[in-house]
Amino acid sequence: MWPEAEPGPDVDAAALVALGDAAFASPRPETGRTLALLAVQRGQLVYERYEAGRSAGDRFRSWSMAKSILHALVGLQVGDGKLDLLAPAPVPRWHTAADDPRAAISLEHLLRMVDGLDFVEIYEETGRSDVVDMLFGPGRADVAAFAEDRPLLHRPGTWWSYSSGTSNIVSAILGRSIGGGEEGLRRFMRERLFAPLGINSAAPRFDPAGTFIASSFCFATARDFARFGLLYLRDGRWEGRRLLPEGWVDHARTATGPSAGYYGAHWWLALDGSGIFSANGFRGQYLVIDPIRDLVVVRLGASTPEERVHVIRMLRDLVRCFPPLREQE
User: Is residue 209 assigned to a domain?
Assistant: First the structure.
């Protein structure tokens, strides 16, 4: 159960309520449908609201916020000494031919989306869309194999390109490292990440090959997404116990050069120097972490690309309702 509290006296409560009213307004507001909106400051739930007919017990689709959950799982294996970030990525099909240029791709390249693979991330069915084919078309039976088969377009480390295929390659690497197939990875996720955080609602989706579809599909309650965010806000510690390796959160929020600074390692970065980083998902899913305000914000919804511009503006204004609690580093 989350510890709940009223917003502190320095919080602009009137603006917070007004923003919530606008986000859940009818007819459809400029931000599109907001299904859930909550804020956690100082580890306490200080704001929570749901679309009519939904509640704190409902599960919501993560979409690409699952990529950031994958980052945590990989960190656990790196901390255990089972995965090496800088070694050639253990993808068997890239190492069968001596001249396969994909053999130069490392796990670090994959986590930072600078692997150089030719993968088209467009959620439209007109023209080529590798992500749609992977998730809903010919690649859906084995999402990792579909992505692994893509040719190299750029030298690894030189070109940033956001790719759900890349995340599923990482997920398959993780699964092979843990062993035991789908059940082995489910057990690992539950015992090493979800259970220690008190996350009971998480429902990751797997493909028929036994790969966690970490690009897109982990269902959970808004509160449980916030618990995951709080782990990263607390530098990988939970209730005084270190869960993620020392420095792993910094790994997530260290800018990747070819991304122009707005992407870290399976986490998005703010470009305003605020230190804010976030897990973002298709159709307007956001898990925002602000270390300066000791704040986690979760917004789950169904917004078009045009509406997401307004969602981002709303989240920026919502964060500013809370005062900074320490100096910016």
Answer: no
pTM reported for the whole predicted model: 0.97
In contact, 116 and 152? CB cutoff 8 Å:
yes
Q: Are 278 and 293 in contact (CB under 8 A)?
A: no
Helices (H), ranges, the chain: 13-23, 65-79, 107-111, 130-136, 143-148, 164-178, 181-189, 195-197, 222-233, 248-253, 305-319
Strand bridging mode 44-50 / 33-41: antiparallel
Q: Tell me, yes or no, whether 104 lies in a domain.
A: yes
Which structural domain, as residue segments, surrounds residue 134? 67-177
The CATH number for 99's domain is: 3.40.710.10
Q: Rounded to an integer, what distance in angstroms lies between the CA atom of residue 113 and that of residue 82?
A: 21
Cβ atoms of 160 and 114 closer than 8 Å: yes
Domains in the chain, number = 1
Q: What is the pLDDT of residues 130-159, one digit of tens each?
A: 999 999 999 999 999 999 999 999 999 999
